[in-house]
Amino acid sequence: MRVLLRHAVLGLYYAGRKHWVGDPGSALDLGSIELATELSREEEFGDMNILVTYDDPSCELVLPIRRSKQAANEPLRDAA
C-alpha cells in the first residue's frame, strides 16, 4: 500500500518539499492518511487528493482534501 498526495487540478504528485512529479511511481510515499493530511495542512496545500494505492491497480482510494472557507481566511493556530 502507498499513500500519495496529488494536486486535484494539476494532477501532479508530491515528491518532497517544493518538488512535484507527473509519475505516481516517483511520488513520495507518505505511509499513512494521517501524515498526508497533516502535511497538506502544514504546507497549506489547496485542492489536494490523498491517493491510497494497492498492488492491484483497480483498487485505488481517492480522498479529497478541501480547505474550509473559515480555514482559508484565518491563520492556523497552535492548540494550547
Molecular structure report:
The longest helix has 10 residues, at 33-42. The relative contact order is 0.22. The protein has helices spanning 33-42, 69-73, and strands spanning 2-7, 13-16, 19-21, 48-53, 60-65. The radius of gyration is 13 Å and the shape is globular. Strand 4 (48-53) and strand 5 form a beta hairpin. It is built from 2 helices and 5 strands; from the N terminus they run βββαββα. Strands 1-4-5 form a 3-stranded antiparallel beta sheet, covered by helices on one side. Strands 2-3 form a two-stranded antiparallel sheet. With 80 residues, the chain is an alpha+beta fold. Helices cover 19% and strands 31% of the residues. The model has no long low-confidence stretch (mean pLDDT 86).
Reconstruct the topology from this structure:
Elements: E1 2-7, E2 13-16, E3 19-21, H1 33-42, E4 48-53, E5 60-65, H2 69-73
Antiparallel strand pairs: 1-4, 2-3, 4-5
